[in-house]
Design the sequence.
């Protein structure tokens, strides 16, 4: 909640939020009430508690989307909620050749179910498809973790850890802006940019009396090696470790 409040406070007024999409970890009355108080639309995966499983199993009015998927909905006020809310149910027929993301219900064999809570006045299938568009955001989170090490550090002080994390986010945004400014047609992950643009293999050699490194130049249009050899003066950096005196124990 506090992170969301901070993010909304930092959002420029010229930007409008179309919809808030979140997984079941954010299925909470406090968050839903906050979003409704702010007038924000939301689509959030429902945590399938015992009561929600029973209501999903009781749905009788199903509208088929194709031979495998059908949609339904119901309204329910859960314990501790201040009002009833709309729930959208996606029913998928089990298939041997395709795994399903939904949950099985003992009362309705042969199907899996996904349930969303939303305040949007859209058909159930549109809410489901809108939520599925957030899938690419998980890929960006994975890039932050695996390519930029966003989950591989922890400093002693909270604000120091926050500063380091924000620095990684800044780097990620700079890499995205670099691709936009270069006019790249396809998105490249940070690890791909590192190997294709920022790092380049080289051989140490001589040109006359000069020590040089021989490397391939980078084609700025394709961001791949062009095969043209380029000689650059060799530069070396040396690190001299500090000598430490052994500590004595008494």
Sequence:
């Amino acid at each position: 909640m506090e992170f969301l409040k901070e993010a909304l406070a930092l959002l420029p007024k010229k930007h409008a939020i179309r919809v808030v999409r979140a997984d079941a970890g954010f299925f909470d009355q406090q968050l839903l009430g906050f979003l409704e108080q702010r007038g924000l639309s939301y689509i959030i995966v429902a945590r399938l508690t015992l009561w929600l499983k029973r209501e999903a199993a009781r749905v009788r009015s199903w509208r088929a989307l194709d031979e495998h998927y059908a949609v339904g909905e119901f309204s329910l006020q859960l314990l501790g909620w201040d009002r009833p809310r709309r729930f959208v149910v996606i029913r998928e027929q089990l298939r041997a050749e395709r795994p399903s993301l939904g949950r099985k219900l003992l009362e309705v064999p042969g199907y899996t179910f996904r349930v969303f809570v939303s305040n949007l006045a859209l058909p159930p299938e549109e809410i489901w498809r809108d939520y599925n568009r957030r899938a690419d955001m998980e890929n960006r989170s994975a890039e932050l973790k695996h390519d930029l090490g966003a989950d591989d550090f922890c400093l002693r002080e909270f604000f120091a850890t926050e500063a380091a994390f924000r620095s990684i986010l800044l780097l990620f945004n700079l890499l995205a802006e670099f691709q936009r400014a270069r006019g790249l047609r396809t998105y490249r992950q940070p690890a791909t940019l590192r190997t294709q643009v920022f790092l380049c293999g080289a051989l140490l050699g001589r040109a006359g009396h000069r020590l040089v490194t021989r490397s391939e130049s980078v084609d700025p249009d394709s961001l791949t090696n062009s095969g043209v050899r380029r000689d650059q003066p060799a530069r070396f950096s040396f690190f001299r470790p500090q000598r430490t005196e052994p500590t004595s124990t008494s």
Q: What stands out?
A: Residues 8 and 28 are 19 Å apart (CA to CA). The first helix runs from residue 2 to 10. DSSP finds seven helices and ten strands in the chain.
